[in-house]
Amino acid sequence: MMQQPENKRLVVGITGASGSIYGIRLIETLLDLGYAVHLVISNAGWRVLKEEMDWDVTNRDSLLQEKFGHRGGSLIYHPVSDIGASIASGSYLAEGMIIMPCSMGTLSSIANGSSDNLMSRAADVMMKEGRTLILVPRETPLHAIHLENMLKLSRLGVRMIPAMPAFYYKPQSMEDLILFLVGKVLDSLRIPHQLFTRWGEPDERG
């Protein structure tokens, strides 16, 4: 079987921050665009999926197949404890990584280079290899340690896209607000989309 080109591989992380729906919509969109998505979900992330999405997370592999198996692309799930996974090595080529939503705990782990699980190790790989790393922090209010960690990572080239939806395009539903954030991530990755109406452009959303 032909190997997936590295520019069609992306790593997606979902942490225990509120807003797991952001990560779910991102995965769906990338799969529909034909990407190979390497997925890592923290233990707290699974808890939030259960609480916010009402997912039965007892059988995780079957659940992911049920939710994403009918889409294009390919989904490769890695347990957060699997430090020997492909994405833990810089020799495995991937275009970049997005953690959406990103908890302050995970952000701190990345900022301090702890690499104590696959989520933070994969993020560390992106940084050391000079690849794109995007974090979508979801916390409020923010204290000085949160802000200092974000500034530290931003100075190292990590892209911060806080979960702050816009309203200038007159969103009509919660789904519109979610897709705006997904679209901003895709913009940062230079992936074309029509998930929201841009300022100065007509509404082309179907």
Short key terms for the protein model shown above:
206 residues; globular; alpha/beta; 7 helices; six-stranded parallel sheet; 6 strands; 38% helix
Structure description:
- This protein has about 210 residues and is an alpha/beta fold.
- Helix content is about 40%, strand content about 15%.
- The chain has 7 helices and 6 strands, in the order E-H-E-H-H-E-E-H-H-E-H-E-H.
- Helix 6 links the parallel strand 5 (about 130-135) and strand 6.
- Helix 1 (about 20-30) crosses helix 7 (about 175-190).
- It is globular, with a radius of gyration of 16 Å.
- The termini are far apart.
- The model has no long low-confidence stretch (mean pLDDT about 95).
Number of strands: 6
Query: Kindly, what is the distance between the CA atoms of the first and last residues, rounded to a whole number of angstroms?
Result: 36 Å
Give the helix/strand class. Answer: alpha/beta
The major sheet is characterized as: 6 strands, parallel
Number of helical segments with 4 or more residues:
7
**Poorly predicted spans:** none
Can I get a quick summary?
By secondary structure, this protein is of the alpha/beta class. The protein contains seven helices and six strands. Strand 1, helix 1 and strand 2 form a beta-alpha-beta unit.
Question: How are the secondary structure elements laid out?
Answer:
Blueprint: E1 9-14, H1 20-32, E2 36-41, H2 43-53, H3 60-68, E3 74-79, E4 96-102, H4 104-111, H5 118-128, E5 132-137, H6 144-155, E6 159-160, H7 174-188
Parallel strand pairs: 1-2, 1-4, 2-3, 4-5, 5-6
